Amino acid sequence: MSNFPFLSVLTVAPLVGALVVAFLPRHRPELAKQVAFAWSLLVLVLSVVMWVSFNAGGDRFQFRESYSWIPNWGVSFTFAADGIALVMLMLIAVLVPLVILASWHDAESSKRSVPVYFALLLVLECTMIGVFAAADVFLFYVFFEVMLVPMYFLIGSYGGHQRQYAAVKFFLYSLVGGLFMLAAVIGLWVVGGKTFDWQALSQVDISTGTERWLFLGFFLAFAIKAPFFPFHTWLPDAGGAAPAGAAALLVGVLDKVGTFGILRYCLPLFPEASKWFAPWALALGVIGIVYAALLAVGQNDLKRLVSYTSIAHFGFIGVGIFAFTTQAGTGAVLYMLNHGLATGLLFLVVGMLISRRGSSLISDFGGAGKLVPVLAGVLFFAGLASLALPGTAPFISEFLVLIGTFTVNKPVAVIATLGIILAAAYVLWMVQRTTQGTLNPALTEVDGMRRDLNLREKVVVAPLIALIVLLGFFPKPVTDVINPAVQATMDDIGRTDPAPSVGGTVQEARR
Amino acid sequence: MTELKLPSIDYAAISPILIMLGTALLGVLVEALVPRRWRHVVQLTLALLAVLAALTMVVLSADERIITAGQALAIDGPTLFLQGAILVLAAMALLLIGDRSVERGGAFVAQAAVTAESADDRRQAEGRNGLTEVYPLTTFAIGGMLIFVAANDLLTMFIALEVFSLPLYLLCALARRRRLLSQEAAMKYFLLGAYASAFFLFGVALIYGFTAGIPGRTAGVDFATIHAAVGESPASPVLLFAGMALLAIGLLFKAAAAPFHVWTPDVYQGAPTPVTGFMAACTKVAAFGALLRVFQVAFADANWDFTPVLGAVAVLTMLIGAVLAVTQTDIKRLLAYSSIANAGYLLVGVLAPSRDGLAGTMFYLVAYGFSVLAAFAVVTLVRDDDGEATHLSRWAGLGRRSPFFAALFTFILLAFAGIPLTSGFTSKFAIFGPALEGGQAWLVIAGVLTSMILAFPYLRVVVMMWLSEPGESTPTVTVPGGLTSAALMIGVLATLVLGVAPAPLLDLATGAAEFVR
């Protein structure tokens, strides 16, 4: 089964589905939804089969496929997945069907074509899978840029308040980063001897000056995408305006392309420059953790609040990556997965709350738990997962990042720990103001607030809750896959973990 | 008495030129002899057949690498590639020019001499059939362009420049509606074009002076002589620099590069839209064909001298085109500034003196030509009772009214913005790659930065079409007749195919990318 071309099939399948859905008659929206959902389930099944046939102890890159594309430039359709990519692919495959299910009625309120909405979601899935599966820098760039188009229309056509502004801002920010990366991609192509193959390029020796410029080109694109402070200002707007399902994918998966790109491209291709820039990147990460958390505390818009919490979490991931230890790196990758699950859940739940109330302002809620207890409970759980409560999956990743960082850089680890406290503040305060306390009388007049979660919505949240709890207690299946890949990445940049030195420090302390 | 020796002429190799010019003359006869109601059909068929025949001859002589007609014409790889490009794009433009279903009577005025805004003018605008003289004029222009890219000495180049410019000046004045704007455009284009020609001619004279006095060679303006003179001439290099600068002014004017671009927005706006498309696609190919040959053949060894200056011009062109495109409110002016910025990108390609650079530039010309013709084809379709609705605010909500054409236009705009899987991306790569390889990193960075600026106006149009609500004044898109549809679909398909599978055309361009000296 391992000879099956998983990655190319996985990439193409959603696109085919999108075409089918897009050409379904506009007056039969139910059919379009069902087809889109079924199609995404098909992708999920295929992904599970792929996960099972991945050999965790085997080669770093598996399922490699390569087809010639533009031989003049050394461009090929090369797909390959390491453990990191595999985990992200799995996250996409899990999230998309749930998002489709959660967005069942989202497109209807916008007066726009319902089938097109679901077709766009499937196109987005195609490009997301492609970007993680690509092992050719040119191909990666193609998916990286094309990915903007479906998301642009999802936000711009189906979004809420200020959707035009948010869509354009999102597009322009990403495009700016992408064009910097294009310059660096061309530069890499020239110094790398006119090939785009990742494995060939990772063997190339680049002069120090050039390497730093190329690193910057790539890093800028990824830092905007992730987003890291100070390139983050587009995310609250985009996350706030996007429909909840698209926002869950935007923050849950799309933004991970940034951190994934740093792990796959910046570190192995430009190891020396990565080390040189690491203090700066760590500083950006730490500032992001604290700054975004503080801003999150002050938000009155639910979706913007969740967006800011994500920026803080991306700070954690950035710190984990640039600490250059296997623990922190594994933590960062695990964080990418767990954040996708937890924040995805949070966005979806918040979306359910908003669609009931017809408003995304926290001040329009208050005591909602008395009307919709199950929904409030799920919101509380998602919030706890998001603040990394022990027992939920994000705790493990956050803990790994912190201890991995602590061994090499204590100040950063200590400041980052502040982020945990702030996380508790923004999550608990948000939960308190929306669902706890005295009931806001205005809420009882809203029809939607009298309906608790229906079966469809329960089906959406249940798998995510189960996964968060499961991975919170038993992350081994995932870490087994991630660890070798992170280890290989650390080998690429020539960093080994510091030997455990507990004894030494204790002795020093005694002296 | 010395015997006068006639130069040998390879008639087969120059047959595309002869076919186009011959057809143009034939077209004049058709105007005189064929009854009025048949002229449109006869002229259009004649012009299209001629383009087809010329294209066939280009394909048949694809392996020709000679200098013929004395030293006047070089039929080599770049010539044949660019001639082919001009002919294919011209065929598309002819389809747009010949369409009479979108607007009754076609896009051209019925009687050019009628006073603008008079009662007669309004009557002619109501649907009397347009002039059919546009076909011979267009074929003359195409013939001139074919000579322009093949010219192997500066005088031939000058004559070709006039042969294709004069018909274009006239064509600009022939819009059916907004006659004043159209006449103003033609006047501006003519006056500035005449200046540019004068500059060019003065440059030829200076270069001639520069080539005089090399031992064992007679003075001349053919490129081989100039090439030799750059290394050996005892004359002052000031002559060379001044001559080069004046020649460059003449050529950069046609290419619409800053600071010689000021005519572009006015002319693009005023000219009949099919002619604008023709100019944006074919004139660009011709102008850059000549620039490539002059700077990479004649002045190749002076590249240390001209590269910084042309580089500065390229940066300025990209910057002006991109920044001013942001402020535009008229779709034709927006496309004009975008075309200026694209001239800047093409100049980056001219400054990458390698085989890949030449191939990339030629690839870019073809890819851009297809996209821009398709873009102007859409512009001809969006109209109300008063003709084309070119103000951007009128395009609001077009995606709701006519999703199919709005989607096509969106795709073209994404191509202009350089999004992957469109020819806009591959062609940018084809130019920036060799430029970076040639050590022109600063030009590539300038190109990337201006691409970011330029993305904004394109995106604004997309926002207008899709995300804004249609207003009262949103025009509908006219369902196009066969000719415009054909041109539009060819343009869009080429934009897609060259973006997804550029390898065949790249191979062709790389194979052709070698000048004969």
Automatic annotation (TrEMBL), chain A:
It holds the Pfam family Proton_antipo_M. It is found in: Endomembrane system; Membrane. One of its GO terms (cellular component) is membrane. Its main location: membrane. Keywords: Membrane, Transmembrane, Transmembrane helix. It is a multi-pass membrane protein. The keyword ATP-binding does not apply. Belongs to the complex I subunit 4 family. This is NADH-quinone oxidoreductase subunit M.
From TrEMBL, chain B:
GO terms for molecular function: NADH dehydrogenase (quinone) (non-electrogenic) activity; NADH dehydrogenase (ubiquinone) activity; quinone binding. GO terms for cellular component: endomembrane system; plasma membrane. It catalyses: a quinone + NADH + 5 H(+)(in) = a quinol + NAD(+) + 4 H(+)(out). It holds the Pfam family Proton_antipo_M. PANTHER family: NADH DEHYDROGENASE (PTHR22773). HAMAP family: NDH1_NuoN_1. This is NADH-quinone oxidoreductase subunit N.
